[in-house]
Amino acid sequence: MSEEKMTYAEAQEIFERLLKLDYHPVAIKFFDSLEEAEKYEAEKKAAAKITFCQFTAASRMANYVLKGTDENIMCDNCLTTFGFREPSDEEAKGHEKYVVDPEFAKEVLKTKPRMPLGQMKAFLTAPLAKTPVEPDVVMFICNPLQAYHILNDYIGAFKVHPLQFNHTVNSAVCGGVVWTFLTHKPNMNTMCSGSYTSGKTEKGEVNVFIPGDQILGVARQLKYRTEVCHGASFPYTGTEWPGLDVCKKCPMVKFKDLE
To answer: Per-residue confidence at 254, pLDDT binned at 50, 70, 90?
Structure first.
């Protein structure tokens, strides 16, 4: 695979066209200073406090470039995950419903991915094609078959196998982004209670997170593999995604070239 030059806009077009994505991939950037964040303009601003998964929903569904700080976040779990505050016993009470064990709920909260306290001062979310800055993480919300293709192309691009993921009881979007940011590894998880209701994640969708400095490599691999195999589909090589959706060995559904 060649290291051809590719823009983020070209990468988004490749993902959306070849994998038939329903939403834009979301570029996410964390800023260690407000001065750095001020170098980049947002198109809209949140009129009230919202959740981080609602920021990403607006970027993937409404095509908005957005910025935020702790003053824009209403989600207690996100404030802790982003390192805006320390975990507390009061917050742990909100985790009791997941494990039905007050003491273990404290451990669950403490072991979720978390940015160093006070490190991050602001964040930006944008459709990948419109990001004004190199992203730290790129997030997809997609169906499992699309996720399968994205992650397989990550494996092909970076020669890493197998992949392992991080699941937590909640904080699926904010925690998922932070885990990939801290580990520099791809991640896949389900929605959580909050991202299902607030973040507009459908029941049949999953979250996929790719380190920002690797997203162009994944796009190049998808493009290259499609050219070599004459189609993006893994289930049926040589066809468009998802391809001819029949059993590979079915003797009844076959097609021959015209003579």
So the answer is: confident
Give tens-digit pLDDT for 108-121. Answer: 999 999 999 999 99
Using omega within 30 degrees of 0 as the cis cutoff, is the peptide bond preceding 127 cis?
no
> What CA–CA distance (Å, rounded) separates 109 from 252?
54
- The 3-class SS string of 158-206 reads HCCCCCCCCCCCCCHHHHHHHHHHHHCCCEEECCCHHHHHCCCCCCCCE
Do 25 and 140 touch, CB atoms closer than 8 A? yes
Residues 6+ apart with CB under 8 A from 34: 69, 121, 122
Cα 84 to Cα 115: distance, rounded to the nearest angstrom: 8
Cis peptide preceding 242, ω within 30 of 0:
yes
The ranges assigned to domains in the chain are 8-229
User: Which pairs with CB-CB distance under 8 Å and at least 24 residues apart come from 162-168?
Assistant: 163/188, 165/189, 166/113, 168/108, 168/112, 168/113, 168/192
Task: Report pTM.
Answer: 0.94
The per-residue b/e assignment along 199-234, b for 16 or more CB within 10 angstroms, e otherwise, is bbbeeebbbbbbbbebbbbbbbbbbbbbeeeebbbb
Pairing of strands 137-142, 206-211: antiparallel
| Pair of tokens at residue 116 | 């160093």
Is the pLDDT confidence value at 2 over 90?
no
